[in-house]
Amino acid sequence: MPVLVTGGAGYIGSHTCVELLNAGYDIVVVDNFSNSKPEVLNRIKEIAGRDFKFYAADLLDRNGLERIFSENCIEAVIHFAGLKAVGESVSIPLKYYYNNITGTIELCEAMARHGVKKIVFSSSATVYGNPKSVPIKEDFPLGPTNPYGRTKYMIEEILKDLYVSDNEWGVVLLRYFNPIGAHESGRIGEDPNGIPNNLMPYITQVAVGKMDKLNVFGNDYNTHDGTGVRDYIHVIDLAKGHLKALEKVMRGSGVDIYNLGTGTGYSVLDVVKTFEKVTGQVIPYVITDRRPGDIDMCYADPSKAFDELGWKAEKDLEDMCRDSWNWQKNNPNGYE
Ligand code: NAD
Ligand code: UD1
What we know:
With about 325 residues, the chain is an alpha/beta fold. It has helices at about 10-20, 40-50, 60-70, 85-90, 95-115, 145-165, 200-205, 235-250, 270-280, 305-310, 315-330, and strands spanning about 5, 25-30, 55, 75-80, 120-125, 170-175, 180, 215, 230, 230-235, 255-260, 265, 285-290, 295-300. The protein has 11 helices and 14 strands. The chain binds nicotinamide-adenine-dinucleotide and uridine-diphosphate-N-acetylglucosamine. The site of nicotinamide-adenine-dinucleotide (NAD) has 28 residues, from helix 1, strand 2, helix 5, strand 5 and strand 7.
């Protein structure tokens, strides 16, 4: 029985589709291409050497979802579909609340109508807000600081309530730290629209000549070199975490929460230096003001995922930089 992957044409979803297909799962993918391109589907098939069913549909379209669940005997859902730009969520909050929360409610209603009660959800380390200390454990207090983060927090609560109302649900909430990197083939990777918000796509676009220089947002943070520290995780490690989470939801019911990170924090300048070292590209940069809302340090304690799922990140920062660059240099304009 197939696994439904929502948002499977996106950055993390596409890499997870490859890992699912490689592991022998049948998949059905749904995406509305609001932040992705149809070409990615060909690339997934090419890498995995296997075909899968795809629906160009919006989670907000009840009839579209009904069709997917009627035409396929779905066993479980991995739910990536959502909007993720923090800055945009501050300017257009209702778009984020409507798409992410209503989309998830529609999805869960369709699942319930069809007796599908297993879901793995893409949450984010952003639910922790400004953590009291690092490394961050799953039982730390939550306090997202922007509308995007609040959609993740609210969806976590909705899924917990669903389990309380019906103990047959199996829910895994995965809190990702900072996914970067790309499939080692260089055929799929992150393809942001317009000017990248996040560090690694910005660096690779400087390297490929689309941007002049990197703006380093502040060097007066309380970190070893003053620049912000994050837990960067290779997207393939992250994708593999979803297979472990899927095994977990299939084993039984309940709600389980896991941090997916490496447990190591790197500063902006650590990333720039490692990127330069492994790619031979020079990344000019200037120090600018802090970006509003940024914090000093954010990295995971990933031990719960290891103890309970048997998962840990295998790839290091050099692998992440090499694979991000391999994708960008082979696809300077992304999937276009
Ligand atoms: P992405 O934008 O590349 O992928 C999301 C996909 O969902 C896109 O292909 C988009 O077209 C699709 N989508 C959005 N709304 C939809 C809707 N209503 N109906 C159907 N499809 C819809 O993002 P990503 O980086 O792959 O992230 C995947 C998930 O992980 C998101 O929920 C995101 O919030 C979460 N997440 C991402 C990061 C990160 O840094 N990339 C970190 C933490 C959590
Ligand atoms: C951002 C989001 C967060 C989301 C995460 C993963 C914000 C405020 N937060 O977090 O909600 O979960 O992405 O998608 O947007 N940096 C620069 N120059 C740049 C870009 C980034 O110096 O051009 C620095 C940042 O200040 C930060 C680090 O690089 O210290 C990482 O930034 P980014 O990749 O945007 O991730 P987060 O800030 O962790």
